[in-house]
Amino acid sequence: MADAGMLRFHVPEPEVRPGGTPDFSNVTIPKAGSVPRPEIDVDPRTIRDMAFSIIRVLNRAGEAVGPWAGLLTDEELLEGLRHMMTLRTFDARMQMAQRQGKTSFYMQHLGEEAVSCAFRKALQPGDMNFPTYRQAGLLIADGYPMVKMMNQIYSNEADPLKGRQLPIMYSSKEHGFFSISGNLATQYIQAVGWAMASAISKDSRIAAAWIGDGSTAESDFHAALVFASTYKAPVVLNVVNNQWAISTFQGIARGGSGTFAARGLGFGIPSLRVDGNDYLAVHAVAKWAIERARRNLGPTLVEYVTYRVGAHSSSDDPSAYRPKAESDAWPLGDPIIRLKNHLIHKGVWSEQRHTQAEAEILETVIAAQKEAESHGTLHAGGKPSTRDMFEGVYAEMPPHLRRQRQQAGV
Ligand SMILES: Cc1ncc(C[n+]2csc(CCOP(=O)(O)OP(=O)(O)O)c2C)c(N)n1
Ligand SMILES: [Mg+2]
Prior knowledge:
Bound molecules: thiamine diphosphate, magnesium ion
Structural class: alpha/beta
CATH architecture: 3-Layer(aba) Sandwich
Order of helices and strands: HHEHHHEHEEEHEHEHHHH
Helix content: 25-40%
Strand order of the largest sheet: 1-2-3-7-6
């Protein structure tokens, strides 16, 4: 009782700061293939330990092993590799375009490409994602035109959203990509509500909610779990744990909970953790969770364990808050290199073909960029009409907006 009368609270601190030696020895990585694959109608109480493990398929030798392996054909895997490579190249070009002043803002996916690219391939047409800004792979893997994405980033005359959204906050109903909300965590309650509405209208489309590690600290995350678990909504609850929330390490939002997946246990929601840098594991777990939703078995919470290799956004400099070499020390490797090695191991890919594919993809991305730039960039060329600013919210324009439009003379 030495402390009686002297209260204090606890502020979690990251293991290392800039200048220190990166250390992930506290991240326990189970062997690939070691986590069982339960039936989809499993009693959640019997799989609570899965919220503390990590489902992995690809081992160090590049082999796919264990009960979660074997769901994808070689063609599908090659396509997945191409999607991830495309997203990475797209990111690099758009990050450069931001530095050249062609857009005000950009956010990359570096190191996290497998999460959104593999998840998309487990969904059916009509299913709806409620993404954050770090799931553009959902669009790329669904064949959404890159030119349209770039037009949005440039806020040019061909921007499908007419300059009304922050760059990278895409929206496409046809591709199951709900308009991104800048207010973090709102996606979670929106997704659960949409899923309940789908069930109420006797539809067969399910929803997928997306959130980052940091944003799970928002009350919307918890409110969404209440509704999803009580009403057994047909939704997959995705948490992308990339270790950082801008400059805040994941331990702040996680607090005393062992893992983010463990947040689901108190709600009786089956909660799994998966190696987010393993395309095969992400796809297999997504399939499992999506099937549960579609068969009226209720929500599943999936934590993707990954690492944000790049800066948070084009406005951020991570060297101010973490060691520069931290991403090299990340024990789950790089998702593109891991899938590439697997395909080489299988004899359906080679270093030479990979280099050739990199060049082809770069050419395609540059061609899309040229086309987008012909419609204008932030400070040059075509812009959306000022008149558009007044459209798109109300079915019938209310008098005050009509007056404002007249005042603007458009
Ligand atoms: C409600 C709300 N609070 C704060 C912000 C500012 N903000 C934007 S991104 C971000 C960090 C989010 O981190 P995380 O949820 O881990 O996602 P990540 O960026 O790592 O993918 C913050 C605090 C915001 N957009 N909305
Ligand atoms: Mg994060």
